[in-house]
Write a structure and sequence with these properties.
about 220 residues, alpha/beta, three-stranded antiparallel β-sheet, 9 strands, about 30% helix, globular, binds ligand BV8, DHS-like_NAD/FAD-binding_dom, zinc, NAD-dependent protein deacylase, metal-binding, NAD
Length: about 220
């Protein structure tokens, strides 16, 4: 039986990476429109690069936690599809080998002119030139609001074929990720939500495990 798991910022919170909508969340320091939309990037690429350079520096210093490691163990004994909204690489550094990053990755750079991708340097600048076409149009390889998330075909398939769909540490506020539980349920999956508190889509889950991810995820996995 396939298990499909969706993670959000809450699974990395205990690794010291702030979530978006907590009281001290990232968005508090910036308006979403200024740092996570193509329009915001066109308006002020230096601000957006500063925002992502700061998050990249935090992410490379962070360590995977017991929840990331528990999901890596789950993959060793089950047919698991791991989908994350997160742009850090803590799942990979926690031992997961196949991770679908539907909102992109802090470790990736993208040329807005030719679409070429390459490993992002720790500090990206608006005037960096694309190694392929030479255009000064480099951006973080991140899916912003209004852009189409990556790997949606594979994501819909993994959700439709899941016997169990679990969402861990996500507020259920951002679509299409927030709609995946309802889609899984409509396709016959058992749905379980693991979170500190209710999310915006808790009604879509038949089971709940309330608590910090480093407690409830290993308990669920093991
Ligand atoms: C798109 C960039 C079209 C990277 C992000 C309806 C249908 C379709 C689209 C829309 C729709 N309504 C509105 C839209 C448009 C929009 C949207 O959803 N807007 C919202 C604000 C209403 N969506 C889009 O634009 C998306 N694109 O729709 O294209 C399309 C549609 C379908 C199919 C094809 C094409 C693009 C969305 C991507 C935007 N980019 N980030 C970055 O900077 O990181 S989203 C951003 O929010 C992050 O990626 C983050 O992952 C994501 C979701 O947040 P969460 O991960 O849930 O984090 P949050 O802080 O909100 O919550 C943390 C949770 O953890 C909480 O529940 C908390 O309780 C819990 N927690 C905290 N600590 C712990 C914990 N849990 C356990 N243990 C703990 N210790």
């Amino acid at each position: 039986m396939r298990i499909t798991v969706l993670t959000g910022a809450g699974i990395s919170a205990e690794s010291g990476i702030r979530t978006f909508r907590a009281s001290d969340g990232l968005w508090e320091n910036h308006r979403i429109e200024d740092v996570a939309t193509p329009e915001g990037f066109r308006r002020d690429p230096a601000l957006v690069h500063r925002f992502y350079n700061q998050r990249r520096a935090t992410a490379v210093r962070a360590q995977p936690n017991a929840a990331h490691r528990a999901l890596a163990r789950l993959a060793r004994h089950h047919d698991l599809t791991l989908i994350t909204q997160n742009v850090d690489d803590l799942h990979e550094r926690g031992g997961s080998t196949e991770v679908i990053h539907m909102h992109g990755s802090l470790l990736g750079a993208l040329c807005a002119a030719c679409g070429c991708r390459w490993p992002a340097p720790l500090v990206m600048r608006a005037q960096d030139l694309c190694p392929s076409c030479g255009a000064p149009e480099t951006r973080p390889d991140i899916v912003w609001f209004g852009e189409i998330p990556y790997h949606m075909e594979a994501i819909w398939a993994a959700v439709e074929n899941a016997g169990i769909f679990a969402a861990i540490g996500t507020s259920g506020l951002v679509y299409p990720a927030a709609g995946l539980a309802q889609h899984a349920r409509r396709n016959g999956a058992e749905t379980i939500e693991l979170n500190l508190v209710d999310s915006a889509v808790s009604r879509d889950f038949t089971q709940r495990r309330i608590g910090p991810a480093t407690t409830v995820v290993p308990e669920w996995v093991d």
